[in-house]
Amino acid sequence: MDIQLIPLAPGKRITFNYQAPATAPQECKDLKIRVIYELYDGAPILAKWIEIDNKGTMPVTLDSFKSEILALVETAPKV
User: Fold this and answer.
1) Alpha-carbon span 3 to 59, nearest angstrom
2) Taking the CB of residue 4, how many other CB atoms lie within 10 A of it?
3) From CA 11, how far away is CA 9, in angstroms rounded?
4) How far apart are CA 36 and CA 51, in angstroms?
5) Distance between CA atoms of 31 and 11, rounded to whole angstroms?
6) Rounded to 5 degrees, what are φ and ψ at 26?
7) How far apart are CA 75 and CA 69, in angstroms?
8) Which residues make Cβ contacts (< 8 Å) with residue 21, sequence separation at least 6?
């Protein structure tokens, strides 16, 4: 299989990394969660996604996800 990577659009990316505390249930301790945000230069676009890595041997099912609702106002275009 031939995979081609598409270069990222210019802008900014921030990634938040999370892991379960020591007191969490065993099936959660091997989960690594990343929440990624991207802002693109020249476009009023905010992208967000989550990535979940299960490094353990037990399957885990994600049955819900709540994302924030952003109430943003677009600024007037610069002329």
Assistant:
1) 28
2) 4
3) 6
4) 8
5) 29
6) -55, -40
7) 19
8) none
Q: Where are the beta strands (DSSP E) in the chain?
A: 11-19, 31-40, 46-54
pLDDT at 41: 87
Q: Which helix (H) or strand (E) holds 30?
A: none
Q: How far apart are CA 64 and CA 62, in angstroms?
A: 6
pLDDT in tens, the chain (79 residues): 555 555 566 889 999 999 999 999 888 889 999 999 998 888 878 889 999 999 988 888 989 888 877 777 767 666 6
pTM, rounded to two decimals: 0.70
